[in-house]
Amino acid sequence: MLTNFELKYRTHGKWIFVPTEQCERKGRRIIKYFSRFEFPDYFYHYQPGGHIAALHAHLTSKFFFKIDIQNFYYSIARMRVTRALRAHGYPGANTLAKWSTVRNPHGGPHAHVLPIGFVQSPLLASLVLMKSPVSAAIERAAANGVSISVYMDDFIGSHNDQVVLSTAYTDIRDASVAAGLIPNPTKLVPPTLAITAFNCDLAFGRAQVTAARVAEYEARDDRTALTDAAFYQYRDRVAAANSSASLQAF
Questions:
Q1: Which one of 1, 67, 82, 210 is least enclosed by Cβ atoms within 10 Å?
Q2: Secondary structure of residue 74 in the 3-state scheme
Q3: How far apart are CA 138 and CA 151, in angstroms?
C-alpha cells in the first residue's frame, strides 16, 4: 500500500499534509527534473521578486482586477497531474502522480488531489494551470495589451482602458470555471481603480503594505530588532517603485 504522508492537520480552515521521507524524495526528484523548465513570464512565483514584482508589474495602469482561486490545490485531480507530467516526458508519470496526491479531504468530484504541504505541489499545480483553458485566456488578454500576473492562485490584471480590462476579466474568470478552478466569490474584484492583494494596496503609481497589516505586525508581543528590520525592509520594498512608476506613466 502506498503511504505518502505521515499526518494531516487543519489550520485556518485548510488541510495540511506532512509527507513521508520517501514522498519528499520523490517530490524533490520531480522538482530537479523541471529545474531548467521555463515558465511563462507572468508566473511570478517563479520570477525574481515574487509577489512584490507581481504588484510592481501593474503600477503604470489605472484599472485593476483580481481573481483568487478557491481551494486551488484541492481542485486539481490526480489525472490532471498525470497528464501534465506525461506532456513533459516525465518517466513513470502515473506512479509519481499517485505519490503526489492524496484522498480529497473536502470530498467533491475528485477522489484524489494535490495537497498543501508536499514540496512538489506548487510545481505540479503550475504545470496543470499551464495546460488549462486559463492559460489560453491569459494569452488572449496579453495579446490585447493587458498586464497579467499570476502568483499561484492569485491573478491580477491591469490596463488603462476599463472596457478592454473587463473583457479580459470575464474571459479569465469564465475560463477558470471551465477548468474546474473555481474563483472565490468573496474575493472576486472586477476592474476598478484600486485593489488589495497580498496584504498590499495597489493603485495607479502606488503599492504599499496595508495599514491593517502594519498594525497587525506592530501589535505582536514577540517583536525583536531583527523582525522589525525585516518587516520594515519588506514594507519599503513594496513601496520602492512608486515614484518611478508614476513618472513612467506620463
A1: 1
A2: helix
A3: 13
